[in-house]
Structures
1.
Amino acid sequence: MKRIYSVLVENRAGVLAKVAGLFWRRCFNIDSLAVGETDSPDVSNMIIVSSGDQRTLEQIEKQLNKKLDVIKVKTFSESEAVSRELMLIKVRYNRDNRKDIMENCEIMGAQIVDLSKNMMTIQICDTPERVRIFLETMRSIRIVEITRTGTVALQRCGETESQ
Amino acid sequence: MNGADAAVKCLEAEGVQYVFGYPGVAICPFFNSILNTDIRTILVRQEQNAAHEASGYARISGRTGVAAVTSGPGAENLITGIATAFADSIPMVLITGQVDSGQMGSDVFQEADISGACESFVKYSYIVRSVQDIPRIFREAFYIAGTGRKGPVLIDFPCDVQKETLRSFAIPDAVSMRTYRPTVKGNTVQIRKVQKELAHARRPLLCLGGGVHLSGACHQVREFVEKNHIPAVCTMMGLSALPTDHPLFYGMVGNNGQSTANHAMNDADVVIMVGARVADRSINRPAVITENKTLIHIDVDPAEIGKNAGPNIPLVGDIAAVFDELLKEPAAADYSAWLDTLELYRRRAVHEKAAEKPHQRRAGTVDPRAFIRNLTQSMEKDAVYVADVGQNQLWSCENAVIREGRFLTSGGMGTMGYSIGAAIGAKLAAPGRQVAAVCGDGAFQMAMMELGTAAQYDIPLKIVVMRNNTLGLVRQHQHLAYHDRYSVTDLGGGPDFAKLAEAYGMRYLKLDREEDTESIIRTFLERDVPVLLEVEVDPDEQA
């Protein structure tokens, strides 16, 4: 089972290490992790996607709450969230596959954001699932390097309202 | 005023009486400033014991223990003590000197990332980056250590910040942390559920953990047990929450516990875990506990509830506060049939024990169980008994008679050598009470340097060393699980304890004949003077 944790933390040195250390020490998975400042500069938001059985997922929430740098933990399933991931992918292209790549990009709504004589960088910002599908389609091409943000997510407005 | 002056002023404001520690250059400003206060400093012989002494002090005084050591190796030596305190939720503030803040991260002499190293076994840690933060940090550290689920808090204190001038000093009146608001009062709805469950229960049982001591709730729990005639068992950390000879007390549970207690646990239809973790050594198969019983779990730490088992009814709160509420209701039901069953179990266990073939001991050794029974029965009512780790601990758990006193041991971490440090701390916390440390010859040799500390500060330590020239519990394990292939458990070369006692100005006694037990114990306890009692134990004795 997958679960998304939206964790508000004090924006202090060392907090990321403490939270990551908690997952390591208690053998919890981190499927993805994204951290950024919120609208108030002393608070950061961590979006942690994890997976495990019911007891583990419950423990993750409780152990996060127990950390003294954690202000608030919200947790929701993927279906209750609007999720996005940004991926930049640099590929080597040639005359033969150039068109295929551009077609793929068009179908999946990806953009070519950088270009040289034989390399291009493509950006895709979409749901984690569509980002995965796009990556699969690119596997036949020579990938030079990839960088991904990990999932960022917000609970769906309807879910937040009903709480 | 500099940072170190501010820090010791904060300690004074917290009512700190003792700082256990060991100096070094990086903590020298602190130890310089402490001379201006009435706080007593205790120089340990190795830093690990500073934490154990602060632990013993904390557990007997009910206050937060304090240790201060230098950077690098000083701080590193403290680590086992911190982890030991964390495992048993002992409130403690640990101050470590650190290299100058400008040099941190450059691997200079005696630099260690102690807050990083300790992260997973402190309740919280600080690095003092700015001198202005000192009053807030110290105030918060004591607050965090001593509230909610208690535990050790580390303050890493760079040397330059200790020396920096602080212009205005004011300790904040109250601690306000948006990230830390422990629940004290139990939820009323949940408390009602507990009462309802007890009204329907036929075989209810309380299982008392270390949280009962930490909350200072022994009195309330005892009143509850007596008022409702509900029987109780305990975990190792919960020992002495009820007098061990209380008629409604049925012993310690777990794989090292008593059969009556485990029978009670198995047969109960409602178990109330009180400040206990449902840990592996107490509950063999926590996952199945709710199959045939209702599990009510009361703990101040919400993360403990449901971590290992169940529960059917979670109840988060401070135990004393929860039992104050529970005591407002009249007795719920009549459990006399259940008590009759338990009495039967108790009698059966006594018979079984009596029928056991006595172990043929080697000449010149005594029965450690009988010795512990005799010793604890002869000790004063409010005495503190500190058991170390190993066979001696298991014999102690089973046989120590603790009435109004306390039983201390390192339960969660099982740290060998804990008893001597803890006994020193306990004796300082309660100079008027009898304190005895009981350890094996293995654990003793891990901490025997502290005889120097005790001698230096005239702390009349009473130490029992159960000597069998072997690491008994591991040897026993090798006997059972490795078919007598004994590996690295022979503890030869042990010291001449008589000479050792003499070297530290302690009286020396030796017990190697059963018939001398009573007179030796009488001499051991007779005056408030330091005594080392060597008790000869057969290495083949099982625990």
Note: Chain B has three domains: 3-163, 188-348, 357-536.
2.
Amino acid sequence: MKKKWLVILLVLSMVTFLWGCGKSSSSGGKSSVLEGGASESATQLEYWTFVELHGQHFQKMLEKWNAAHPDKQIKLKVTVMPYDDMHNKLSIALQTGQGAPDIADIEVGKFPDFLKGTPQLEPLNDVIEPYKDTIVQSRLNMYSKDGNYYGAPTHVGAALAFYNTEILEQAGVDYTKIDTWDDYKKAGQQVYEKTGKYMGTADTSALWQASMMLAEQGKDFTDDAGNPVVNSPELIKGLTILQDLQKSNVLATIAGGQPDTEEAYGEFNKGNYASMMMPFWIMSRFVNYMPDLKGKIAIAPIPVIEKGQPRSYGGGGTGTVVTKTAKNVQLAKEFVAYAKLSLDANIEIWNTLGFDPVNMEVWSMKDVTHNPDNKFIQYFKNNPFDVLNEIKDGIQQIKSTPASPTINNVLGTTALNEIFEDGKDVTEALNEAQKQIEQQLQ
Amino acid sequence: MSRNLPKKIVLIAFFAVVCAIVLVPFYAIALGSFKPGKELVRNGLNLSFDLSVMSFDNFSFLFTGDHSYFTWFFNSVLLTVVQVALTLFVSSFVAYGFAAYEFKGKNFLFICVLLIMMVPFEILLLPLYKLTYDLGLMNSYSAIILPGLANAATVFFFRQYLRSIPNEIITAGRVDGASEYGIYFRLILPVMKPAFAAMGILNGMNSWNNLLWPFMVLSDENKYTLPIGLKTLLTPYGNNYDLLIVGSFFSILPIFALFVAFQKYFIDGMTAGSVKG
Amino acid sequence: MVKRFLYSQKVAPYVFVLPFILVFLLFWVYPLGSSVGMSFQKITLGQSASWVGFANYAKLMGDGIFLKAVMNSVVYMVLTIVILVPFPMLFAVLINSKWMWAREFFKSAFFLPALTSVVVAGTIFRLMFGEMDTSLINSFLGLFGIEPIKFLKGQTTGFIALLALATWRWTGVNMLYFLSGLKNIPEDYYEAASIDGASSFQKFTRITVPMLKPTTIYVITISIYAGLAMFIESMMLWNGNNSPKNIGLTIVGYLYRQGIEKSDMGYAASVGIVLLVVAMAINLAQLAFTGMFKKED
């Protein structure tokens, strides 16, 4: 009989356990709640991001917010997840209306998927209004639908060229003389001959280079109506130039598929590639992940196909959103606008994250942009804002449309790989990609 | 016997080589756990024994650093133990019903068991997610445990096992005046030990390694299991690989200890079990 | 009264199978039914679903990426069976032979990989199959003067990595299945064969293989299931669901991509239903072919 009771007891305790963990949420382990000097009565908001550094920025802004708004204090619970996981979890949570945080970061490439149907996000129009005139309008448009702004932008992401001057000097190349892709090709061939190293990368897993080539020719992946046209003569021309550079040993594919990966940081850090054309925010990757290149990297405008073409475009981006299920929608919205769009926030975005802020006034604030204590300033040979201000008026915009995630996926997984890994004909690859994109969007 | 010596040597040599290949990844990760995470992403995992880049930093970070590794570890152990115990109990309970009785609808129900074995669980992910939400079980371990309670493969295995137990035990129990449940608890459960061991290990492995479904329903970092936690360390910037590699290495140890302890039962149980056809 | 009722021999069996019925109805029948329903719907974020008939299925048939995913899953399934049935069987027979030393050690060593989580195993293999010349596989190939290979960027080489991972993890498990099957073969059969002068090879093909048939069927059945439903392995090996040229995309991966990454639950449900039909058809065909049903009572 004893045994029977033991079994029953065991079963009962397990059932209790099951009930228990269904109801309560036990805590323990690492807590990631930012207090930011808030009092006990502060509202706790939950924030998801895929970049740890964004949390640090929010911490700084939280302290300022709590000090300035004693009646509306906030505690922020920050959860950092890998890129795919965070977006997927957010997507499920919003689809089912359960488990979403109050505030979240959504990357521009994923954003259109969250704007499908009736967006489960709060329009930020009223809180953006006070800052609207100070920030780059096109960055707001990326996160909008039907006149509603759903995301607060982080940066402009102006594309620049980054040259490893140590390698260039060995090869006897002067990067300031590189204006066109023809110049770049000659320089690259010289680098390859003299040092055996490649001038740059041919990217297979991201669209930075493709976007750059389109922007120079004033084109986009979509037409004015938002329909995808990836087999446009302009994109064919742009990628053909890159493929030709690859065939001339100027460019080569890189481990990781593009410069913004851990594998590629390693390659660059070792000095295997002499340049990259990337959006402004890549500077923070240089500083954090390529320490050996400190003092060797010079910044310049990117080369163009023909002189007089626009010399940059805004790449990448993260929109911070407030979800419909947020506990205190208005408070969350006000805080997001404050933490991302106020002048203070814009200055901090440069100081903490090393991004080019969306408030362009900051670009010409000498004490901020030429602060000798700033680690980003210290790292590079020349001042990034000097270059930025030079190309300021030529920064093109690549639109974000409902078709964009599909375009990114098809080009970034298939077409670019075929072109640069398998040497497939550019026109052929892009025609197939166009067909596949249309089929996917049906 | 000496005639067989060459055969013996060839056989042992063959297995030694295969075994070495099988163990290479473990050796590589053991070495890797002493190297900085960035090093691994940039150079790949390899067998270079380069003392200049090796250190105990990862281990000291594992035991003293600011992270949730041991919370995840504890969660995984807890979840695995509870899930396996409940699954074994419920599944054997059900299997006994199928093995010991003739009743209306039995064949139909048993066909359902077989059908479940052929339905890939993955296709139910989305509706199950909705259901879990409707039941208010999001972010709870119940959501992970309940769908697997009457595990079809386990029920099937137990039922096959029980068929090999002589009917006299049950008849004798009834003669002694035991109730139907008494027979199960006092006479049947004890003789199922080998089957429990075998299914315990298989279910334990599945539970310990389960990723997709728990990842979908758990959103609180403090409730993550080890595989989910380790997966969240795979950020694109390689800065968490230190913990990932050493944590991965460390996660293999407990389940291996369990296996070594119960290996005998495992083989015995499998032998006694289902696959007689 | 209630107790008498519950304890009667007529009612007891239903009490015993009740947990199964509940779990079956709640967690299988209901979700499966709603999956079928969803596959005929267009479900948009924040709006009510609308019925679209067979539109999702029609789209699937012309979807090149889906067909690629089906192709990958089926090829993976076939190749895992081709590898993971004969080799584990052979290993089991060899390890069971009377000339073998240190059996327990080898069994444990072979089983060890199965105990590592896919997250861990996938990461190890991704780093081992890295394209750098310093990664394990490439540095090994380098010993023979072979140039570094970009394993995870090509269809064939990517599958080699994927199959290496599967083989590494499952050889030991399948070997144990076959070892338990071997224990059921009476020793007299071999003795009788020896008296008749049969060679070792003849004994293997005439006695061992036929007698292992039930085990083989079992292993094939679970391999079909596991092969067709494979997803996490691919996700870990490519560190995401977007492998170059979709070389690692599987059916479940596509379901995940459509349903979760792209919020198109209706389309994803139809992917799931196709997977269900394919898995059922292949498994039933296999069982019918191997004569499993005749033995079942």
Note: Chain C has 16 helices and two strands.
